[in-house]
Design a protein that fits this description.
The protein is 36% helix and 26% strand. The protein is of the alpha+beta class and 151 residues long. It starts with a helix and ends in a 5-residue tail after the last strand.
Length: 151
């Protein structure tokens, strides 16, 4: 096989393999939120509840306590209705950043306030929820959900 054909074949295979790799959508302002932060875990947990086909990602990002609660409700619709009391047809979730800069790499607990914006039955719905996270074996896990962060 001539060298040109081999190079073309290798290049084609490399491009095909690289294009087949899916990378998780980045989150946060400008897509720069680090994966090892409680904010990233909180948003990915919410995506597991509102956007995925099942609750597997949300359960994986939960403490044992929260995982038991999620499994008890079986489906995303039940979790949205009973745990969050917040239903959406389409939703976008962004973490609310505070003016103070804290270092969560040394913390064992964190509270993350999330802003929900989306549609339900043709109406625009916006709301806030605060998630309490704990560090378990070096990984951030969602432990509790607060309905109103200001109460």
């Amino acid at each position: 096989m001539p060298l040109r054909i081999r190079l073309f074949f290798i290049t084609f295979v490399a491009i095909f393999l690289l294009s087949a790799c899916e990378k998780e959508e980045r989150i946060g302002r400008y897509g720069m939120l680090d994966e090892n932060t409680p904010e990233y875990t909180a948003v990915m947990f919410i995506r597991g509840v509102y956007l995925d086909e099942n609750l597997d990602r949300a359960v994986e990002l939960s403490t044992d306590r929260m995982a038991r609660i999620l499994k008890r409700y079986h489906t995303q619709n039940n979790v949205q209705r009973h745990v969050f009391n917040l239903k959406y047809d389409t939703v976008e979730v962004t973490p609310q950043t505070s003016q103070s800069i804290g270092r969560t790499e040394y913390a064992d607990n964190a509270n993350v306030t999330l802003f929900f914006s989306g549609q339900y039955n043709g109406d625009k719905v916006e709301d806030l929820r605060t998630l309490e996270l704990k560090k378990v074996s070096g990984q951030w896990k969602v432990d509790k959900i607060q309905a109103d962060p200001f109460l």
